[in-house]
User: Which sequence fits this backbone?
């Protein structure tokens, strides 16, 4: 009976891996198809930008009435701003495609090692050193217990959580604060990242709760993939992620990982 159950579980695992590979291949193919028109949009937008510069030079040399010159000049001066918006949209779309591809590959290969979280979080914080200095936020990193996990993936997990916390800083508050704390409970290591940012509305909180407890790949009605990446990394480690938030007060995201 035990051998039969083991064979059944192995079969399910094999089918799950096959479906995962199919998903990865599908996302890779879709991302390739999406990048081709984006490359064209980027290239033609840059050509248009160059053409506008040439047209402006010709306009300055042309002998036309002052009123016509002024009207054309105003129109031409607005075009670079529109083109900049277009290029910015292309860059954001490329970034989202890259994140989606990375999201599909999380958990494919996990190398579990004993992690010094104080060292790992210090390295993560160094990547954000410029943003932390520019925003004037205070980042507190007290002593953190060790855990077991993949160093690269756990680094990405906290990098995404820290990125979200920095994005949610409240400009109305005199000083932003982000604190990462940890404790050990039995065989688990619990880490919480807390900020005093803008927090979340009740509607946003419900969207996040629904996403965290459901099977969805991406959160409904929310932009960005930071939380989706964090959820998948935690799940790949057999962990759990939860949060607390209040409008105008801030957020606290906690993860439970193997101790």
Assistant:
């Amino acid at each position: 009976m035990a051998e039969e159950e083991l064979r059944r579980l192995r079969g399910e695992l094999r089918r799950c891996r096959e479906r995962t590979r199919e998903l990865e291949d599908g996302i890779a193919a879709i991302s390739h198809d999406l990048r081709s028109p984006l490359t064209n949009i980027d290239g033609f937008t840059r050509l248009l930008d160059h053409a506008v510069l040439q047209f402006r030079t010709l306009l300055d040399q042309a002998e036309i009435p002052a009123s016509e010159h002024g009207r054309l000049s105003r129109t031409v001066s607005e075009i670079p701003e529109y083109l900049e918006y277009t290029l910015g949209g292309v860059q954001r779309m490329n970034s989202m495609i890259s994140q989606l591809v990375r999201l599909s590959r999380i958990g494919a290969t996990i190398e579990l090692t004993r992690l010094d979280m104080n060292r790992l979080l210090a390295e993560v914080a160094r990547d954000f050193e410029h943003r932390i200095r520019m925003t004037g936020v205070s980042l507190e990193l007290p002593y953190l217990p060790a855990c077991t996990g993949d160093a690269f993936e756990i680094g990405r997990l906290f990098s995404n959580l820290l990125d979200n916390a920095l994005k949610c800083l409240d400009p109305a508050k005199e000083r932003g604060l982000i604190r990462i704390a940890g404790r050990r409970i039995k065989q688990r290591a619990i880490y919480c990242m807390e900020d005093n940012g803008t927090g979340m509305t009740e509607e946003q909180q419900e969207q996040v709760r629904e996403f965290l407890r459901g099977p969805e790949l991406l959160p409904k009605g929310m932009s960005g993939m930071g939380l989706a990446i964090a959820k998948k990394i935690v799940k790949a480690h057999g962990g759990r992620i939860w949060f607390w938030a209040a409008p105008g007060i801030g957020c606290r995201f906690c993860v439970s990982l193997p101790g």
User: Anything to note?
Assistant: The chain has a mean pLDDT of 81. The radius of gyration is 24 Å.
